[in-house]
Each structure stands twice: as structure tokens, then as C-alpha cells.
Amino acid sequence: MSNENKSIHEFDFNLICEYYSSVERQGPGSPETTIKALSFIDNLTSKSHIADLGCGTGGQTIVLAQHLQGEITGVDLFPDFINQFNDNARLLNLQDRVKGITGSMDNLPFAEEEFDLIWSEGAIYNIGFERGLREWHKYLKTGGYVAVSEVSWFTNERPSEINNFWNDAYPEINTIPNKVTQMQNAGYIPVSVFIIPETCWTENFYAPQVFAQENFLKKYPDNETVKDFIENQRHEERLYNKYKEFYGYVFYIGKKI
Ligand code: SAM
Question: What's the ipTM?
């Protein structure tokens, strides 16, 4: 397999964590998109419990905390992200109701029906969309919500270059109607579905990485893994710019029946 087609999972995780710690978002998204998705969720109060799974350093968690009153628990596999998450919460004086814990989204330390809302931006792919929706269902109260963003096809057909790239990186990529059916079959009423704007990729995700990439290459000038990783990121960005009418991130919001 050429390096350009290497999955992100094959690179050294510590290097990836260090790289992504230097940018605010670890996936495509924006404060406006988080707030829009939140607008479809009702019945949240200061007593509500919210989980943000695959929270990263917490870019979207902080936005959530600033727009709702309940308690938020962020979960991420990587301790460095969680340390940064908790530092950010303290800096913003949100530490009393925003807490990050290290853990895996496929083995959560939660009780059944503990949450009013489960959030996950650009992260459910780690467990798989269908599996995540099914397994997380039990942690929600009846009438609670799940809100996840997930890479999805916008069309039934697409050029083979991008089709092969994504089928290799994430074989569960699917069209929006098929994802909605999966959500319904997992026990949720699909409440809202919307495509997140292109600027969430170009301005919020890729643009800050230009600087991060230059810094990273300067810091590790002789490291082949770093060079491969950066080339991989740039390749993914080039593909996005070339084929963005065929795919993107979609927010899926469902209500537990
Ligand atoms: N939600 C953040 C955002 O939108 O900026 C981060 C998205 S990033 C693309 C995916 C996140 O999932 C990373 O922070 C990664 O560490 C985390 N992750 C990967 N596998 C995980 C697992 N099994 N359990 C929890 N988090 C995981």
C-alpha cells in the first residue's frame, strides 16, 4: 500500500495525538454547526446529563457547555487529549459541570439510562455508526437524544478514486438515506439530518493544519513517519477539494423511542 493510501490508524498514535493537540478541532465542524445541531434537542435542563464521546481536546464540548446548562462528561481514548480538555474547562471556569475522562466508546463506564443526550462529532466511526448507535442506546433515557456527525456519500455514484479511498479508510461510509435507516433500526426517531457546511472542512479543519503541518515538519525534520503522516493529511485535503460534491460530514440527530 502506498503511503498516500495509508489509513490514519497505521501511523504512530503518539505523533498523531501531538499533531492534533496543536489544533482546536480534531475533525470537521464549527461552533455554528454544533449550535445548529443542539437547536433540534429539547427538554435539556440544569439537571441534564450529557456525554460527548470521542471528545478530543473538547472544541465542540466547550461550545455545548456554553449553550446548555447540564453536566457534560467528555470521553476520549487518549489521555493527552483529556488533559487538555480538562485544562480548557478549568480555564473557562466550567470545571464544575464539564469533566473529561479517559475511556473507550466501546466500553463505557456508565449506567443504563444515565444520559439525556449523547453527542459525538466526527468520532463514531471509531466504533462504526451502526454499532455505536445500537450500543449507546441503553445509556440514554427514553426520550433522550443522540447527535452524531458522520462522513456520508451525497450521491449514489461517485468517481472510483474517491470511492476507493473512502471504502478503504472507512468501509461503513454510506448514503444519507441508508444512514437514516440504520438510525431508525437502532431504535431512534430520526429528528433531523443536515450536511455540515464546506467551511467546517476548509476553514475550521484544514486551514489551521497548514501552520500545524509546517511546525511539525520543522520539529521532526528527519522523521519519515511524520513526513508520511503529513503527506497523508495533505492528500486527504486534496481529495476533499476535488470531490467535495460527492461526500461530506452529516449531522444525524435521533430521539430514543
Ligand atoms: N470530537 C472531536 C472533534 O470533532 O474535534 C474529535 C474528533 S477526532 C476525528 C476523533 C476522536 O475520537 C479523537 O479524539 C480520538 O482520540 C477519539 N477516539 C478514537 N478511538 C476512540 C475510542 N475507542 N473511544 C473514545 N474515543 C476514541
Answer: 0.99
